[in-house]
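Example for tutorial group B:
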């Protein structure tokens, strides 16, 4: 178990893949530990995703999910880049998907340059929809799948 765990993302539409990531972070955090959730700002998000929901909407959806799970020891902080506070704060571990593992490895290279201990990288598999393709906010927005990965378009 780790005392300080971090995750990060846009969390545009809070889907099953995001929930698995969040749940994993809490499952590896000690009882009195803290999960830091880096949530991309509108400025950073707009550069990457068209028609993304505003920061406050995304943050509220995260809070609602965390409440349904009974999670208490967390903080949600705005981040302006893929590093967030990982290059300055003393985290123990970072939880990532196989898709974003390379970012965590880059973070560890930079932490080493700054004289910080490397983070334990905890990787979850990409969560697949019923059609065996990754669940993603864009596929949900395009009406292909729902937030749980169930197919919406048939044929």
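The residue assignment follows.
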């Amino acid at each position: 178990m780790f005392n300080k765990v971090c995750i990060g993302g846009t969390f545009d539409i809070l889907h099953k893949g995001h929930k698995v990531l969040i749940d994993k972070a809490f499952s590896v955090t000690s009882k009195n530990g803290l999960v830091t959730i880096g949530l991309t700002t509108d400025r950073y998000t707009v550069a990457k995703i068209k028609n993304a929901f505003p920061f406050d909407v995304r943050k509220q959806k995260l809070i609602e999910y965390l409440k349904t799970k009974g999670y208490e020891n967390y903080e949600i902080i705005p981040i302006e880049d893929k590093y967030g506070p990982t290059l300055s704060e003393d985290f123990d571990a970072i939880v990532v998907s196989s898709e974003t593992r390379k970012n965590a490895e880059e973070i560890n290279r930079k932490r080493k340059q700054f004289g910080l201990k490397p983070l334990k990288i905890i990787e979850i598999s990409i969560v697949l929809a019923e059609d065996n393709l990754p669940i993603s906010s864009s596929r949900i927005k395009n009406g292909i799948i729902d937030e749980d990965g169930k197919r919406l378009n048939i044929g």
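The mean pLDDT is 95. Compare this with the pattern of hydrophobic and polar residues in the output above.
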